[in-house]
Design goal:
About 45% of the residues lie in helices and about 15% in strands. With about 325 residues, the protein is α+β, with helices and mostly antiparallel strands. It has two domains: about 100 residues, Rieske Iron-sulfur Protein, CATH 2.102.10.10; about 180 residues. It is flat and about 60 Å long.
Length: about 325
């Protein structure tokens, strides 16, 4: 696990207040872990609750520094201390009070109703809560924009991006299957790095701005791209025949697959609110940018590799 990368779970769930525990269970200054379900990630997200001086505070239970269990930590001077390396986070805001962590904890709003503690994911800077009115307005704006401007036979943006997700998955599998001392392994890793950078670029420049009016997942996706870039940079600095590289490659593969799966299960579905015509327009723009970004590379070799990877060869 790489140092300096935000290791906290930054799930956007729960988007509305959700009961998680009876208030009577919480003891003063004794951290207590609860979990909420993230449908997009198909996984539970941990939250640590702390009852302190008459108030209940909540933050992500996985330390942003190295993933330590904050629910096993302790309260000190208005902050929650991680038991692994001593990072201390403000109970009220989740901000770092003492390092080594450099990233704040995910925050949650808390309220008590009929003896039950309820939590809701707190919006972070750049996040926007969507309402039916905002979604409807975005759909009207899209319809006006795409009228008469849909390229013939264009594929939808989510279809283009899903295909590229599959290519990235195949590239990871190919690199992992190669012998550590195989000379071509470094070249394949460079191709994987280039494709991952291109993928993040087209999403950041085209897809995310377009779906932001209909999806609350965009800020978290931008943050995930930064984390993936950090992890990729570390992997590229390691020798491809070293055990450290193998560990970092597996971690990067898991992170990319988790990010891609989250997009496929959540953001891509929410993007359907834009309508078929707009998605096909975006798909054409994405494919054009993908081709443009690859122009300086061996395009014919890439096409052959793409076919082989998609066929599982």
């Amino acid at each position: 696990m790489s140092i300096g990368v935000d290791q906290a779970d930054r799930s956007p769930e729960p988007r509305s207040f959700q009961p998680v525990i009876a208030l009577a269970v919480l003891e003063e200054d004794r951290p207590h872990r609860v979990e909420v379900w993230d449908e997009a990630a198909r996984a539970m997200t941990g939250i640590v609750l702390v009852r302190h001086r008459g108030q209940v505070h909540a933050m992500g239970s996985r330390c942003s520094h190295m993933g330590g269990p904050l629910d096993e930590g302790w309260v000190q001077n208005g902050g929650l201390v991680c038991p692994w390396h001593g990072s201390r986070f403000c109970l009220a805001t989740g901000q770092v009070l003492d390092g080594p962590s450099t990233s704040p904890q995910p925050g949650y709003d808390v309220r008590v109703r009929e003896g039950q503690v309820e939590v809701r994911r707190r919006l972070e800077p750049g996040d926007e809560a969507l309402t039916p009115e905002k979604i409807s307005a975005a759909q009207d704006a899209v319809e006006a924009r795409v009228a008469g401007h849909v390229p013939a036979k264009a594929r939808k943006a989510d279809e283009v991006l899903f295909e590229h997700h599959q290519i990235l998955r195949r590239l990871f599998e190919t690199v992992e299957a190669m012998h550590p001392d195989e000379p071509e392994r470094r070249d394949m890793m460079r191709l994987l790095a280039a494709e991952l950078e291109i993928h993040e670029h087209v999403e950041d420049e085209i897809f995310y701005p377009a779906v932001r009016p209909v999806s609350e997942d965009v800020p978290a996706a931008h943050a995930a791209h930064q984390q993936l870039a950090d992890m990729l940079a570390l992997a590229l600095r390691l020798g491809p025949s070293t055990p450290a590289f193998e560990e970092q490659l597996r971690a990067l593969h898991q992170a990319v697959d988790h990010h891609a799966s989250s997009e496929e299960q959540s953001m891509f579905k929410e993007a359907q609110r834009l309508g078929d015509a707009r998605l096909r327009q975006l798909g054409a723009e994405i494919e054009a940018m993908l081709d443009h970004e690859r122009e300086s590379r061996a395009r014919q070799a890439y096409r052959a590799l793409k076919i082989r990877l998609l066929e599982g060869g």
